[in-house]
Design a protein that fits this description.
globular; alpha/beta; single chain; 127 residues; Cytidine Deaminase, domain 2
């Protein structure tokens, strides 16, 4: 189970709805199971169908989080035309990072959370 404030959850939903391309954020926590800060990740592909991040920016976010007492516990991104289910690329990245993935869909205005153990698992999201 992962906790996120209603304010942060609403902010992620609103930013997703306002954007014409997929957006992404690093999810930071100063506790193991609570998202309490987000940091924007630039979509290098500038696409409405794909999200691509810059590895140097991810390293900078990791350094920022450690310098400020946070851990990167996962990633958020939006899907514009599809449900909030991880794509094959999402799952490949989940396997590498071993972190949660929070996905918001403009298609149906739903937000779901996932992790990869030995398979794709749904994670309960509490506000």
């Amino acid at each position: 189970m992962i906790y996120i404030s209603k304010k942060l959850k609403s902010k992620l939903s609103e930013l997703s709805e306002e954007s014409n391309m997929e957006i992404g954020f690093a999810l930071l926590s100063d506790k193991d199971d609570e998202i309490n800060r987000i940091v924007c990740i630039d979509n290098q592909s500038k696409s409405d169908m794909r999200f691509t991040s810059d590895n140097n920016q991810l390293l900078d976010i990791d350094k920022y989080s450690k310098d400020n007492g946070y851990n990167v516990i996962g990633f958020f991104h939006s899907h514009i035309y599809t449900r909030p289910i991880p794509s094959r690329e999402d799952m490949d990245m989940m396997k590498l990072t071993n972190q949660i993935w929070l996905i918001y869909s403009k298609f149906n205005q739903k937000m779901l959370c996932f992790e990869w153990t030995d398979k794709l698992e749904s994670v309960e999201l509490k506000s």
